[in-house]
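Render 5-deoxyglucuronate isomerase in 3D.
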Amino acid sequence: MPHSHLLIRPTSQTGKIHDVTPASAGWAHVGFGLHRLRTGEAYGEATAEREVCLVIVSGKGRFAVDGEDFGELGERMSPFGGAPWAVYVPAGRNWAVDATTDLELAVCSAPGGGDFHARVIAPGTHARITRGKGANIRHVYNIMPEDDGAANALLVVEVITPQGNTSSYPPHKHDQDNLPHESQLEESYYHRFNPPQGFGFQRVYTDDRSLDEAMAIEDGDVVLVPRGYHPVATTAGYDSYYLNVMAGPKRVWKFHNAPEHEWLLT
């Protein structure tokens, strides 16, 4: 079967697992990196012209920005183990981490700008939100929401979807710079499953079906959403985790529901 250009499989089990850049994705804003470090390993980068949100998917590490020690951060040993720790790093800075346990670290990025400061985003900074009803329930951890006033472009969120439920559903899109009705945002999904041998499905499609791809997603996969609707479906026995990175011309999350499916919200 042909491989979807929107589905990115992990390249290895350790080290740099994913390296999505605007150039590789064929868009303008969102970047996503994923690193798995063993205890005692170190890693770091310069942000250059981009701002970064470092999300601790699992494990612990000692973080520093331009030599300022932020201490040991992290507590969950699985992405299904509660709220995340994260660090925001603005453009023009250097960050580094020393893994104090095995560490899975996501590097979410977007174009930088403005006068923002490096900061730790601790669990509970934003309350967990439960959305949907019935088989459409999912649990949301906002890491960098649009109303935090703390970044130039980045929007970052984690979602836990229980087994057998749908998520990012009813289908919605955010691909038109047409505020206040809809904002234009590129989006990436980093998927995990519990237990890890699980799988789910994601469809990315437009109203005119000029883009229409349905993908089987497995533990560690990344899905790119350049435009269109992008619902996710889990399978029985396997809970889903995904980490979303969004960015566009304006730091506003305003979506448009597929009209034929809006009845599901009543």
